[in-house]
Amino acid sequence: MEKKIQLKDELKKIKENIEKNKPLVHNITNYVTVNDCANIQLAFGGSPIMADSVLEIEEVVSVCNSLVINIGTINERTIKSMIKAGEIANIKGIPVILDPVGYGFTKLRTDGVDEILSKVKVSVIKGNISEIKGLLKGNNNINGVDVSTTDKELTVEDIFEIAKKVSKIHSCIVAVTSKVDVVTDGERVVYLSNGNRIMSDITGTGCMIGALLGVSLGGNRDNLFMGTIYGVGMMGVCGEIATKTMKKRELSTLKNNILDKVGSIKFEEFLEVLNYEYE
Amino acid sequence: MEKKIQLKDELKKIKENIEKNKPLVHNITNYVTVNDCANIQLAFGGSPIMADSVLEIEEVVSVCNSLVINIGTINERTIKSMIKAGEIANIKGIPVILDPVGYGFTKLRTDGVDEILSKVKVSVIKGNISEIKGLLKGNNNINGVDVSTTDKELTVEDIFEIAKKVSKIHSCIVAVTSKVDVVTDGERVVYLSNGNRIMSDITGTGCMIGALLGVSLGGNRDNLFMGTIYGVGMMGVCGEIATKTMKKRELSTLKNNILDKVGSIKFEEFLEVLNYEYE
Amino acid sequence: MEKKIQLKDELKKIKENIEKNKPLVHNITNYVTVNDCANIQLAFGGSPIMADSVLEIEEVVSVCNSLVINIGTINERTIKSMIKAGEIANIKGIPVILDPVGYGFTKLRTDGVDEILSKVKVSVIKGNISEIKGLLKGNNNINGVDVSTTDKELTVEDIFEIAKKVSKIHSCIVAVTSKVDVVTDGERVVYLSNGNRIMSDITGTGCMIGALLGVSLGGNRDNLFMGTIYGVGMMGVCGEIATKTMKKRELSTLKNNILDKVGSIKFEEFLEVLNYEYE
After folding, report:
1. Separation in Å, CA of B55 to nearest CA in chain A
2. Nearest CA-CA partner of C32 in B130, A205, B32
C-alpha cells in the first residue's frame, strides 16, 4: 500500500516534469508510423524532431533532451545515423530509448541492434517478448516483426526472468509489451496490465510507446525507471479507455481516440485506470 | 445466376482463408501512403511488414505470404530492393502484386517497372487505365500519376480489351481501377462498379487496393483471380458505404470511415453492396 | 475599405483559378507529414505528386504547375533533388515555394537552404520567425525546428521588418507564420490573425501551409502575392473554425477537422472568418 502511494507521487512528479521541461525529443524512426509518433509526443507534452541524416545528427542530438531509436525501416544509411546519434547522446548524457523492431528476424536488424548496443549505452530497451528474448541469443522463434506463437505462451514470470537478464546484460531498463507489460531495471519490477489486444491491429502502437518514453524520460533524467512506467502506462491506459467506447472493430477511430486521449487525459483518470503491481 | 452463386461461395472461401492464415505481407511501397496501407492490411485481417533495405529483403520475403511492390516514391536504392524481393518471391512461390504508379510518366518509373516485369513473374498488376495502357507501349497521354483526360473517355469495353492484352503479355491478372473496375486473367473478366469518384480526392486509395490484394492473395495462393476480386471489391464496397454517409466534402472523415469499414464490415453486407458483372 | 473589397475580389479569383486549373503540385518534402500534405492539397483542389529521385525530377517538374520544397527531413540525397527540381522549375517558369524547416539549426539545413537560394529563384519563402530571421544571418537563437523563446517576444512590427528584409534580399514573397501571420512582397504587407496556438501541437500544420501554397500559387501564376494570402489564410481560418468546436485537447480530432474543413469550407465562410489587415 505504501509503495502504491509512493508510486503515485512519483508518477505525479514525472508528469509535472514533462510539463515543466516540454522535452525536445530526437527520433530516428521508421517511415510507417512516424507521423503518429510525432503527434503522440506533442499530445504528451513533448516536442519531436525527426532527423536522420548523419550530417546533422550531432547538432540535433546536442539540443535534445532524449533520443529515440526505432529500427522499424532501418537501412544501410540510417543505421549509421542511429549509432552516431547514440554516441553523441551518451556524451551529452541524455537518455536513449531503443526499440529493436524485428530483432532476431533479419541479420540487418540483429547486427544493427548488436552494434548499437556495443557502442551506445541505452537507458531503456522496449520491445515485444520475441525481440527481448532474442537479445538473450539462441531464440529462433521469429514471426516477422510480431511475437511468435510459442512466445505468446510465455507466462508473465517467464517474461520477467527474460527481461531481468537482458536488463543486467545491458545495464538498462527493459520494458516488455505484452498482455501484461513488464518493466524492470534488473532489480525492481512493475507489471502493468492495461490496454487491449485489439490495439495490435493498429500499426505503430508499439512504436508510439517508444515515442512516449522519449518524452517522459527526456523530462525526467533523474528518474528513468518511473519515467518508463509513466510512458508505458500511458499507452495502456489510453488504449484501454479508447477500446471501451468501441462498439465495432473501427480501427481508424480507435487510433484517433487513443491519440485524443493521450492529449486530454487528466492525471486523476490516468491513476484511476492504471492497473499495476509493484514488486 | 449460377455463376453469381458460385462467385459468392468462392468469395466466402477467400474471406475464410484470410481469417485462417492471417497472411504476412511484405510491402515495398511509398512513404506517402504507407501508414494507411499498413493499417488497411491489419483491418483486413493481414499482418504487414514494411522493409526496403536490400540487405534484409531475402529474409523478409522468405517468411511472408505475399509481396506488394508499389513504386509511388521509387528511387535508385529501392528499385534494387523491389527486383530482389520479386525474385525471391518467385523462388518461394508467393504471389507478387505490382502497382506501377505513374508508369509512362517518367523514365525511372517506366524502366523500373519494365525491369521488374522482365525479371519477376507477377501475379497481379493493379493500376489506373493510363498506367495499364502504358504497359502496351506507345501511350503518351500522361498526367503525372493520375489518369489522363483522353484516357478518362475510354469505355469499359476498351478498358477490358487493353487489360486483356496486358494480361496476356505478362501472364498475370490485371486489375484496372476506374469508374468500373475491370479484373481479368486474360480469359475471365469481372466488372466491379462500386465506389465513388470522390475517393480519388484522398491520397492512397489506389495504393490501399494493392495493400488489400497483398492480404487476400497472401491467404489464397490457390485462387488468385477470386482473391483479386475480393480485394478490389472490398475497397469499392467500403468506399461506397463511407461516401453514402458523407454530407459534406469532409475527406479526412471519409478516409477514417473507409478504414473503419474495412475492419468492421460483415461479409453479408459486403455481398449485398458488391455490384458486379461476371462474363 | 476599398482595399478590403478589392482583396475579397482578388481572393475570389484565386479560388476560381484553383478550381479551373486543378494545379498539379510537385512536392519534395519530409516523410513525417507527407501524407497530410498530400491530403490537404487534394482537399484544397490540387493534385499532389511526391517524387524525390533525382533521376525523375526533371520529368516530374516539367508537367507540374508548382514546386514545394520542404527540408523537414532533408538528407544528402534529397538536397540534390531539391536543387535540381528548383532549377527546372525556374526554366519552366513555375512558382517555387520553399519551407526552410529548421534553418539555422544545423549546418546541413542552413547550407542546404543557402545553396537552394543561390541557385534557385523562389517565389515564396514560408517559415516561422526563427527560420526567417536566420535568413538575415547572425541569428543564433535556435530551438530545434520550433521558434526560440526570445524570438517569441518579437512584435508583429519586428516580424514585418525582418520579413521585408528577407523579401528584398531574395526578391520573393515572405510568409511568416506566427500569432499573427505576416505576408509581404517587400512592398505590400498583409497581416493575418486567424488560427489558434494549439495548432502547433499537431505535427505538420506548418508544412501543410506550404502544401496549400503549392496549390494556390500553382493555379495563380499571375498573382503570387494574393495566392500566398489565400493559402496562408486558409490554414488559419480552417484551424480557427476547427479549434472553436474543440472542447478537450483532442488533437487527432482537431487535425481531422482541419483537413475536413479545408475540403468543405464555402468561400463565404472563409471570407467571414478571415481576419486581416492590409497596409
Report:
1. 6
2. B32
